[in-house]
Amino acid sequence: MDDPGDKITLRQMQIFLAAVESRSFLRAAEKLSLTPPAVSMQMSRLSECLGAALFEKEGRSVRPTEVATALVPYAARMVETLHEAVQVVEALQGRIDTQVRVAMVSTARNFGPQLMQEFRKRHPEADLQISIANREGVIAALEAGRADVALMGRPPSRVEVTAHQFAKHPYVLISHPDHPLARARRIRRGDLVHMPFLVREPGSGTRMVHEHFFRAADLPLPRAQEMDSNANIKQSVMANMALAFISAHTIALERQAQKLAVLRVEGMPQLRDWYVLHLSRRPPGPAARQFVDFVRTEGPAIMQGLFGPDFGAEA
């Protein structure tokens, strides 16, 4: 009996993924430099091979069926494997891969561009590309192959990564300089339970610090308003609206301008780590490997130059 899979091609998988992503045969055709009839014909053949409908018309768009949705991760793996194979062949042929796509969490924007610029000075041939997102966005970029390397705090647990620690990451508690607690020499955790706070979304580094700070002492979580960025949190604290836990690496300028105060709280600062990492199943190309090695070896000194050896260490 013939195997239906024998007639399925990698090109069909590429067209299929483009159609799913764009929800349109026309846009998929434009993306792949094909004609819409060619896309439609290939998707019809793929449906015939699988014995199941893959798309349903929805006005001028198409909607993936349940079968198509189930097929997506397998098609993506096939296309990704082909891409990796081509990269290996090119590397063996002496073609230097100059692309370095770095995804970083929003907190890392305070030093990530400097790291990349220092790397560019030593490797001017490198094609550096940067993207900044929240933690989930960075992990998604790695999984989807849109990023070669990531700069972030705690490595993800849902995907296997190769991670290298290169700097300490202090978290502190901040207030407006005129807040009554800003003058206190030592603040107990229990003194903060009834204070209003500002927090990031669940799963973020600062949100985890916030929750751990109180739960570790068996204290209830204080009233808190959620905000979508550190910039908004800083502006709100500078308006004396509330307190907030935040990365010390995000407030250097505000502290110098005396717009924010770091509170002397027991158990603070909390030290975490910064990592440069990549997916274990997808080793980075030559230039991206050079960037990883650069951050591992030169990153500590660059971070110290930016923030000082003991930045954020005072309690």
From TrEMBL:
GO molecular function: DNA-binding transcription factor activity; transcription cis-regulatory region binding
Domain HTH lysR-type: 8-65
Entries under Gene3D superfamilies matching the protein: 3.40.190.290, Winged helix-like DNA-binding domain superfamily/Winged helix DNA-binding domain
Transmembrane annotation, as ranges: none
Superkingdom of source: Bacteria
Coiled-coil segments: none
Keyword vocabulary terms for this entry: DNA-binding, Transcription, Transcription regulation
Family membership noted in the UniProt record: Belongs to the LysR transcriptional regulatory family.
Protein name: HTH-type transcriptional regulator CbbR
Natural source organism: Gemmobacter lanyuensis
